[in-house]
Amino acid sequence: MLGARIVFLNLGMGLLLALALPVLFGRDRADTLFERLLRRTYLLLVVYALLRPLLAGTLAGWFSSSGMPRSGLWLWMLAFNLLLNLWLLFLLLGGVAQQLMGELRHERNHDPLTLLLNRRAFFQIAHQRLQHGTAAHWALLACDVDHFKQVNDTWGHAVGDNVLRQVGALLQEMTRPDDLVARFGGEEFVVLLRCDDLPTATRIAERIRSGLSQMRCSPAKHTLTASFGVTLVAGAEDLESALERADQAVYRAKHEGRNRVVASPSPGAAGNICPTPSTAAVAQPDDAARKATR
């Protein structure tokens, strides 16, 4: 009787544990070493739980019902089961800690409103990308929403926040997955993208500008526009200077009437500019442009 109860109890426990196997192994995923170890440990626990009824049934034939629980082999089976469950618990706690650290890292690196990279994370990741690229393969786009203060003053900050979320979503939609899109604060956005030359980068910025100009914001269906500054990046050491050049180009775009793209050449590369149609221009140092209001 005792042996039968042990067999059915272990068989039921093994079948219950097996219900989670399709979820754990039913999808293709790029697991880390820790995740693979966790899944295989769980599989071992399920296999052992299903084998124990066979072992218990065999032991029931070797020992009497009163002697089996005190047998050495049975005690070793219980000890192994305890250690296996403790190891699984340790892995689960490690997985929870890993997930928590990932969430904290995500919150640290991303803007809470738009879920884009923040300024600190952008610089960190951009430096890593630029160290493996060349000057001809990277461009920087700076974007500033036009008259954003009027949006907040007219329809409130809730609508303004929604506008920023829409702008961030459109920037991600109109760039490639490996491009870096970040919100630097307020209505300022920056994009680091792979690009062969400045004319190509300018055309990309013009396409994004056109997309923004066709987007209407709730609740008043107000047409949204933005000013863009574009420049090439000559490696990680040029990132700060490139941001300054792009910012100067944005100020120039604001000064020239907003809702346009201005391309700023890298030092010594002015002869390589091929601006896009009337909305694009080449930025030159201009003190008045820096004083232009946003």
Report on the biggest sheet.
Answer: 6 strands, mixed
Spell out the helices and strands N to C: HHHHHEHHEEHEEEHEEH
Strand content: 5-15%
Give the % helix. Answer: 55-70%
According to CATH, what is the class of the largest domain?
A: Alpha Beta
What do we call the CATH homologous superfamily of the largest domain? Reverse transcriptase/Diguanylate cyclase domain
**CATH fold category name of the largest domain:** Alpha-Beta Plaits
Spatial strand sequence of the major β-sheet: 2-3-1-6-7-8
Return Rg in Å.
31 Å
Task: Identify low-pLDDT runs.
Answer: 270-294
Mean pLDDT: 80
Total strands: the figure is 8
Total domain units? 2
CATH architecture of the largest domain: 2-Layer Sandwich
Q: Describe the global form.
A: elongated
Distance between the termini: 85 Å
Helix run count: 10
Structural class: alpha/beta
Please, could you describe this protein's structure?
The protein has 294 residues and is an alpha/beta fold. The chain has 2 domains: 2-109, no CATH class; 119-290, Alpha-Beta Plaits (2-Layer Sandwich), CATH 3.30.70.270. It is 56% helix and 13% strand. It has 10 helices and 8 strands. The strands form 2 sheets. It has a 6-stranded mixed β-sheet, sandwiched between helices. The chain has a two-stranded antiparallel ribbon with strand order 4-5. Helix 1 runs antiparallel to helix 3, helix 3 packs antiparallel against helix 4 and helix 6 (148-155) packs across helix 7 (157-173). The longest helix has 38 residues, at 72-109. The radius of gyration is 31 Å and the shape is elongated. Mean pLDDT is 80; it is low at 270-294.
